[in-house]
Amino acid sequence: MKTTSAVPSRRDYWAQQMQLGYDLIQQVIPFEVHECGEGFASLPDAAERAGIEMQFSESKIAGELERVFFIREGLVNKLMDIGRAMNDRGWILKIEDGYRSQDMQSQLVRKPELFDAILKKCIWENGGQLPPTELVFRRATVLIANIPKIGTHMSGSAVDISVFRRDDGSEVWRGNPYLEMSERTPMRSPFIEADDLQNRLEITAIMEAHGFMHFPFEFWHYNQGDAMGNILSGHPAPARYGPVHWDPQTNRVTPYDEPLRPLNPLDAIEQEIAAATQRATTSI
Fold first, then answer.
1. Which residues, in sequence order, are bridge partners of residue 222?
2. What is the rounded CA–CA span in Å between residue 212 and residue 79?
3. Tell me: the pLDDT tens digits for 19-63?
């Protein structure tokens, strides 16, 4: 672990990275999107057909909502190539999450274990005092995509991943498991061990070789073909994928009417802060 004087304090680093994340989001918001209308395809089905060893999370995303391991059809073969490359290396790609509906993403922002973790970090950032609602809103926007256009899972163009070893089933350790909400969360955090950073970067190299760009502020998130992916890859053309409602029966997609409208506005975040504060008080 780096301990030189060049490394900022944990609190300063957290605040700096979250601000950089918010600045990136401001670039995504006006970026042009020409929704292509492409449907979705099943990752588990594709992996089975291709004979690729791949794992899929068995946990709920929020409440009783099942995870949806579907992404845009044009991205499936690229993920299969990634899975094959990892198998050849002795690794197994685990898909933690794929497409999220509007309801899933909205509930995820309010999921107590995630919201409480973000609020705790915001209190820490704010010197131990309850932070302004706007600060929590910004941090949640960076870490849980509280605006549809920046929520690449809602575009069906993103996956959250972990990686495991084929020989013994152990995780290729990245410093923390999926999910982590702290100063260790950014991809190049100086607060993880050198070996863990190397694992993050080697996994990222495989993902990005097939066009899945890493979100710099979460070590598990990769996406492509959406506004965020085009910006991260330096591709100025309009994005193909925007947030959509997906009908699994017909495999038809419908673009969001208001992709910039927060899923949880400030007043909802304020209510969640009150609920989280109550949970913390009750648990003492």
1. 159, 214
2. 9
3. 999 999 999 999 999 999 999 999 999 999 999 999 999 998 877
What tokens appear for 86 in the block? 């990892």
Contact 192, 184 (CB under 8 A): yes
Own/partner long-range contacts of 195-200 (Cβ < 8 Å, ≥24 apart):
199/163, 199/172, 199/173, 199/174, 200/174, 200/175
Measured between alpha carbons, how far is 49 from 67 in angstroms, rounded to an integer?
Answer: 21
Cβ-based neighbours of 103, under 8 Å, separated by 6 or more: 65
pTM for this entry:
0.93
Other CB atoms within 10 A of residue 232 CB: 20
Model confidence at 284, pLDDT cuts 50, 70, 90, reads low
